[in-house]
Amino acid sequence: MTPIRVGIVGASADPWAWASTAHVPALRALPEYDLVAVASRNQANADAAAAAHGIPAAYGDYAEMLRRPDLDLIVVSTSSAHHHALVMPAIAAGRHVFCEWPFGTSLAEAEAMRDAARGGGVRTLVGLQTRYSPMVAYVRDLIAQGYVGELWSVVFQRANDQTARKDVTPEYLNFLERANAGLRILGGHGLDTLAAYVGEFVDLQAYMERGLKALRLTTGEVAPVTHKDQIVLQGRLAGDAVVSASLKQNSPTYRPFHLEISGSHGALVVTTGDDLLPAARHPGVPYDLVLHGTPALGEPFARLAVPPGYDRVPATVPRGQPIDVAHMYRDFARALADGTSCATDFDHGVRRHRLLEAIVRAAETGERQRFAA
User: Fold this and answer.
1) What is the model's pTM?
2) Stretch 61-82: mean pLDDT, rounded?
3) In whole angstroms, what separates CA 90 from the centre of its chain?
4) Fewer CB within a 10 Å sphere, N or C end of the chain?
C-alpha cells in the first residue's frame, strides 16, 4: 500500500509535548505512514520541530501546509481551544483528519466537525487511543469468554496529582479551564477506556464538585480554579451490571487507572505498575497497565500476561506512550484500505461528548439520566 502522507500541527521541539512524545514516534515507526510536513504558529517553531523529529518540510503558516496537494491526512494535536479552527479548513481541503481529544471545547463544536466531515466525504479519527491498548482487547475477550461469569459490578478510579503538587504556568491553567479538564480530559479519556472494557452506560447519576479552588502559578500569583474537578458516578451497563466511578483531576494522590471487574465466577483487576507514584505525564494516557485475575470466587488472584498476539504493531514502535497511539493509527490505516469503519471516528467523539453532557445534566438536576450510545 502506498504510505499515507501526513502533515502534523502540534508537534514541537519540546519532548514533553504529547504530539512529540507519542504521535511522531508512532507515525515514524509504522510503514503505513510517511510523516512529511509539520506546521506551527511561526516558522521558527516549525523549523525547530522539523529538525528535532526529522520531518522534511516545515511551515510557519498552517494554511500553506494545507495547500500541499500530496497530503492525505492532517493530524491536529493541539489544545482543544484550537481544534475547530484547525480541523474545519483541513476538511474543506479534502484531507482525512485526526483530532486530539477532547475534540473541541463542546458538544456543539464536535457535532459541527463531524457534520462537516460527513459532508466532505473525508475519513476521521479522534485521539481516544487507550481503547486500542492490547490490554483492553485481551480483557474484553476474557469477559466475552466467561472468565468472570455473569458481569455483576465494575469499580473504576482515576486521580491526577499534577496540579495539586506543583505550580503551573498561566497558559497551562488557561488550558485546563477552557478544556474543562476534570470532565473532558480526565473524564473523557477514562470513561472512554472504561466503555472499551465493559460497554457503555445505559443510565447514570452523578455528583460534580470543585475541590481545588485555587492554584499557585509559576509567576508567584494565586489564581482561582473554576472547573469542577471531582466527579462521582453510579450507573448501570446493559445486562444490569452496576458501575461506581470516581475521578479526581486535582488530587493529593495519583491513581492513573484502577479498574475492578467482578462477576458470578471471578474477577479481573486492571491497574498501573505502581499507581500511587507520581508521574510527569497526564494520566489521561496510561500505558503501563497490569492485569490480575481469578476465575473462581474466593480463590487467590494471579498476574495475567497479555498474549503476544495482541500487540499488533512493529517492535520498532518505542515502548511507552507511543504504543496505544500506534495501534490506533494502524487501525485507521486498515479502515482506509478496506473501506470499513474505525472505532474512534468523529461519530465516536460526538458519542463521548454526549456521555459527558449526560453526566453534567445528572449532576445539575439530581436526576438519573438515560444514555443511548
Assistant:
1) 0.94
2) 96
3) 21
4) N
